[in-house]
């Protein structure tokens, strides 16, 4: 099974070609931010990511997003000294909640999803 080339996610299989098991693992990758954070997508990537390109894509996206949120949260905590950190922390929290829900819904529909505003550290 081959992966779509970077930046070519429009060339991915039709939206509903993922199996129900693949969509379940993909949704869990995204929603794990609320329970176990960065560890969830990493575990799924290392276990199920080898079996399905769809699961691998969502695990990598979720992992990159979780790392980005962790960095933004740490910067916001430091900036609390300057008061602006309170506002950035709230913005990061709301943004993470909304984008995570959008990603989980897309994964549940069997669609390929890319988070906006995310550092692409894991390929």
Structural commentary:
This protein has helices spanning 20-31, 39-47, 53-79, 84-108. It is an all-alpha fold and 123 residues long. Helix 2 runs antiparallel to helix 3 (53-79). The radius of gyration is 15 Å and the shape is elongated. The two termini are 17 Å apart. The mean pLDDT is 86.
Got a strand count? 0
Q: What string, H for helix and E for strand, traces the elements in order?
A: HHHH
Instruction: Give the C-alpha Rg.
Output: 15 Å
Shape type: elongated
In percent, how helical is the residue content? 55-70%
Strand content: under 5%
Strand count, sense and closure of the main sheet? none
Distance between the termini: 17 Å
Instruction: Give the low-pLDDT segments.
Output: none
Keywords:
about 120 residues; about 60% helix; mainly alpha; 4 helices
Short description:
By secondary structure, this protein is mostly helical.
Please describe the topology of this protein.
Layout: H1 20-31, H2 39-47, H3 53-79, H4 84-108
Helix pairs in contact: 1-2, 1-3, 1-4, 2-3, 3-4
């Amino acid at each position: 099974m081959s992966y779509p080339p970077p930046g070519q996610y429009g060339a991915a299989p039709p939206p509903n070609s993922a199996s129900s098991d693949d969509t379940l693992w993909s949704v869990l990758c995204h929603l794990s931010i609320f329970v176990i954070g960065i560890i969830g997508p990493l575990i799924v990537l290392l276990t199920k990511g080898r079996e399905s390109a769809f699961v691998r894509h969502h695990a990598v996206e979720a992992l990159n997003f979780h790392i980005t949120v962790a960095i933004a949260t740490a910067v916001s905590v430091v900036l609390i000294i300057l008061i602006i950190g309170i506002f950035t922390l709230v913005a990061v929290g709301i943004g993470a909640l909304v984008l995570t829900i959008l990603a989980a819904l897309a994964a549940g529909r069997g669609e390929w999803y890319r988070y906006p505003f995310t550092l692409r550290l894991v390929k």
